Amino acid sequence: MTITWSAPETDGGTEIISYIVEKKDRAGIKWTRCNRQKITDLSYRVTGLTTGHEYEFRVSAENIVGPGEPSLPSSYYKASDPKYKPGAPAYVNVIDSTKSSITVSWGKPLSDGGSTIQGYIVDVCKAEEEEWKMVTPPTGLRVNKYEIPKLTEGQEYKIQVCALNKMGVGEPVVLSGTAKPEERMDPPQIHLDSELRKGITVKAGGSVRIYIPFKGRPTPEIKWTKDDGDLSEKAVVEKAVNFTQLSIDSSDRHDSGKYTLTLTNSSGSVSEFVSVKVLDTPGAPQNLVVKDIKKDSVTLVWDAPAIDGDLKDGGEYQFRVCAINSEGVGEAANFHGTVITSDRADPPEMELDADLRKVVSVRAGGTLRLFVPIRGRPEPSVKWEKLESTLTDHAAIDTTSSYTMLVIDNVNRFDSGKYSLTLENSSGTKSAVISVRILDTPSAPQNFTVKELKKDSVTLAWDTPLNDGGAKITNYIVEKRESVRKAYTTITSNCTANSFKIEDLPEGGIFYFRVCAVNAYGQGQAVETKETKVSEVPQPPNKVTLVDVTKTSASLAWEKPTHDGGSKVMCYNVEFKPKSGDKWGTACTVKVPEATVPNLNPNEAYLFRVLAINEKGKSEPKDLGLPVVAKDVAIEPSINLLFTTYSVKVGDDLTLEVPVRGRPKPVVSWKKDSLPLKQTSSLTIINTATSSKIVIKGASREHVGKYEITLANTAGTVTASIGVVVLDKPGPPKGIKVDAVTSDSITLSWSPPEYDGGCSISNYIVEKRDTNTQEWQIVASNVARTSFKAGRLTHGAEYQFRIYAVNRITAQYNFKQPGPPSTPIVKLATKSYMLVTWNEPVSDGGSPVLGYHLERKERSSILWTKMNRGMIKDTEYKVTGIEEGMLYEYRAYAENIAGIGKCSKACEPVAARDPCDPPGTPVVTAITRTSVSLSWDKPEYDGGSKVSGYIIERRDLPEGRWTRCNFTNVPETYYDATGLTENSQYDFRVIAKNAVGQFSIPSFNTGPITVKDDVDPPRIMMDVKFRETVFVKAGETLKINADFAGRPAPVICWTKDDKEIELRARIQIISTDTSTCVSPSAGTLHSLMVVLRSQTTLLRRGTPLRDHTLQ
């Protein structure tokens, strides 16, 4: 944990040299020291804590005399890693697009907030709009790449990505510029395996398979050739969207050669070749001719076969030649000796294609392949180098006798540069340089510094990045972060210069700043400043004055600077120089705005100036103005009174100290009420070289008055007055008179007391006593005027009256402090403020309550904080400055003229969240004689936490009180209110409650509802064809359907000729709550009627039906 504190108000007269930090575990009783080394700062990082334990801390200051008293202990704090929402992802780039989609990728945030990143959320917004739409699941994506589908072709979109941890969603990183879904045109690229580049060797009769993946958009056209000619008929070419394969089965010597794949689309063309060697018996000798013929011999001459069957390099071979005629093969003629196969000596050569002679461009994250065909005998050695730097460790070099290839996967900006290829053998050396440009985001800007620092602004400057990523830098993004936060906020994303001025910063704030360059490929690496405090050198001190001068010293005083530059002034430098000199010297450095410069030469003139110093440096100097001659001078006495009036409570002690200045030392004399002041046992006068004191012990009324102090010396005389007031009970009122008498009242008047006790009279207390009793009774305790009419007196009785004057000192004797108010209630809670109410105390202590004080604390804290500066006159207070989601408790105090009473009980913790909206207005869905069924809609806003239940309230109309209907939780949005009285009227409303215990305000009322059975006469609905005569053939089945309605549910009865139909095998009747059906066989019925009878009424509905059976 890192703890901070303020310097003590007094340093004990000597500079503080260190601080001692101590800690105590909540489970322990012993304080232990945290630091072994000296601490000179006002903060310290405490280590070695046990995770999950709670600690309190205290700090002691130490000077040369020793350590002082420790501070009060801090609150308890739990040792645990802090957790925040994650920072913004490092970058976001568009890596692909189609007509209806855009694919983006992003980097991990620099800070995960102390909690594992659970996923990422991608939002899109049309470029001309401001409403962002989430396109990923709310739980986020686990990967760092996402294809955004279902986009409109040609529409420009803004894209942002946020990281998500268990603390919530972090700040977004916004794609620089906009992105448009469109088909991308990519030139073809062939991914040739390194083994294929070495070539393929197979034995005769074997199969050749050349599988080559590729990519390109649109899909490129595929063409295979052999030795710059067409393929043989047995070669089979397989073509797909992203690969091609050449297959040759039963290969022979004629299949050896160089197979070239060429890919072509509208964006370009690319070729690669694969060498195939088939190991077979030699081919037929060539150019066989008969050179010489004799009668018994023939001389033949031929050339070596075109295919040698693959002789091995360095092998030693014997050769022989046979002749063949129609009779067969003749005897062989042997070549004398052996032949060793070896290559000819050729100097090394390389073939750089046209693309390698230009600048090779590769996107960051892709693969760099520099393929160079080579030749030379003997096989040359190959050396790849990167000019002006070393070759990266992850570069792979593949070299064969016919080619060399440099491959670097996942390239970045640092792989840009010039690459040198050197071939060397015994026949010579060959070199070439290939320029490579990696298309990437820029590197970090260079020489990033704080160029100018002022009290409310910072000017940053930087140089262009070393590497621009292969594209022109379009702009810079400047961000800032407060030292107490983890995440950066963007100040500007469109800075085109190499400097930027950040204004309107809080004075004295501590910030980190960073800047990154942006090119066509996105946002580059950022560079960060060190911790920067927004401040500047202070302004010069004000009003430098000469306080005193002697022949060897001069005393100066000055006022603090008008502005400290945003950083506390640490000290002042006092500089001086002889009037005739030209070099300023430092006389002394002090922390207070006064100093004495010693060791001056008598009678020499000096100039003085003062500079203020803070952590940013020295201010401009402030000159004294006039030269000062070092000599003793007579100084007129002066008196600097801190106060002109002093108040003391009766019986307490009082010390009047007056600073005294003057040269020579002035004579001091005191007067009281224009008479010389005499010392007594309770009043003592003490004079020193720099002050004069009056010490009063046990102040009483005799010490009240006007005190005068007079200082006199040869330079002059000065006088000052001080008033002393002794706070006591007022004296008795004077001149009580009876102004009027009636049969039941007496009117009194009086004059205020001569001595009011040092404070104003607030009211008078009037008491009476019947002459027949000894008991005094209070007639009135809060009389504001000096007259009073005592009423309700007994006719003919004699009374005595006495009157007290009351001031605030009297109140402390006669009245008690008020009792505690009622427990506060949070009437309304939002995420930015709370409205707290309470009731008056039961007891006001005998004096009216003047006002209230309200305190607050967080649930996890033990420290109460006062909310109001002035007294709260009402029993309601709006509390602001709260933090969303925190739980707060409140308590209140009442105050009367006797002081502040005891605090109330603390209310239950209440969360600072926006309140839950009320449910929708309840709707009546059914009514019976004893119940009402209600339903309602959920609240539009749940207060940030799921609605867990509802409270249903009712009241009897017209003047009933609201009472609760349900005493168990109702999680549904419907309810049956039972136990009601028939024919009574009720009103209903609903209150929502969410998971954190917040209640909404009540919904709108339903309005008057009368509780009685809801009766609806029965109705029959059937097809119109049944209202006419129905013709049915004999033997067929007749089915008659009828729908009905009514409340209560009607009773169904089918009749024939006014008689109820009896169920038989040939007749079926099927009924539900809303329909009925009868199925008689034709010929059994001639007329039917369905009758519906209500259970509660005599209403009857019937429909006759005619059946005519065709015989």
Characterize the structure shown.
The chain is mostly beta strands and 1111 residues long. The protein has 10 domains: 2-79, Sandwich (Immunoglobulin-like); 89-174, Immunoglobulin-like; 186-279, Sandwich (Immunoglobulin-like), CATH 2.60.40; 346-439, Immunoglobulins (Immunoglobulin-like, Sandwich), CATH 2.60.40; 445-534, Immunoglobulins (Immunoglobulin-like, Sandwich); 543-630, Sandwich (Immunoglobulin-like); 635-727, Immunoglobulin-like, CATH 2.60.40; 737-807, Sandwich (Immunoglobulin-like); and more. It contains 3 helices and 91 strands. Strands 46, 47, 49, 50, 51 and 52 form a 6-stranded antiparallel β-sheet that branches. β62 (734-741) and β63 form a beta hairpin. Residues 1-82, 88-184, 444-537, 540-633, 732-833, 918-1014 form the Fibronectin type-III domain. Keywords: Immunoglobulin domain, Repeat. It comes from Poecilia latipinna. InterPro entries: FN3_dom (IPR003961), FN3_sf (IPR036116), Ig-like_dom (IPR007110), Ig-like_dom_sf (IPR036179), Ig-like_fold (IPR013783), Ig_I-set (IPR013098), Ig_sub (IPR003599), Ig_sub2 (IPR003598). This is Titin.
In short:
With 1111 residues, the protein is mostly beta strands.
Can you lay out the helices and strands and say which pair or pack?
Layout: E1 2-4, E2 18-25, E3 32-33, E4 43-45, E5 54-62, E6 77-78, E7 92-97, E8 102-106, E9 119-126, E10 133-134, E11 145-148, E12 157-165, E13 168-174, E14 186-190, H1 194-198, E15 200-203, E16 208-217, E17 221-226, E18 236-239, E19 243-248, E20 257-265, E21 268-279, E22 286-293, E23 298-303, E24 316-317, E25 320-325, E26 328-334, E27 339-340, E28 346-350, H2 354-357, E29 360-363, E30 368-377, E31 381-386, E32 395-399, E33 403-408, E34 417-425, E35 428-439, E36 446-453, E37 458-463, E38 475-482, E39 489-495, E40 499-502, E41 510-519, E42 522-528, E43 532-533, E44 542-549, E45 554-559, E46 571-578, E47 585-590, E48 594-597, E49 605-614, E50 617-618, E51 622-623, E52 628-629, E53 635-639, E54 645-649, E55 654-663, E56 667-672, E57 675-676, E58 683-687, E59 691-696, E60 705-713, E61 716-727, E62 734-741, E63 746-751, E64 763-770, E65 777-783, E66 787-790, E67 799-806, H3 808-814, E68 825-829, E69 833-837, E70 851-858, E71 865-866, E72 876-880, E73 887-896, E74 899-903, E75 910-911, E76 923-927, E77 932-935, ...
Parallel strand pairs: 15-21, 29-35, 54-61, 84-91
Antiparallel strand pairs: 1-4, 2-3, 2-5, 5-6, 7-8, 8-11, 9-10, 9-12, 12-13, 14-16, 16-19, 17-20, 18-19, 20-21, 22-23, 24-27, 25-26, 28-30, 30-33, 31-34, 32-33, 34-35, 36-37, 37-40, 38-39, 38-41, 41-42, 41-43, 44-45, 45-48, 46-47, 46-49, 49-50, 49-51, 49-52, 53-55, 55-59, 56-57, 56-60, 58-59, ...
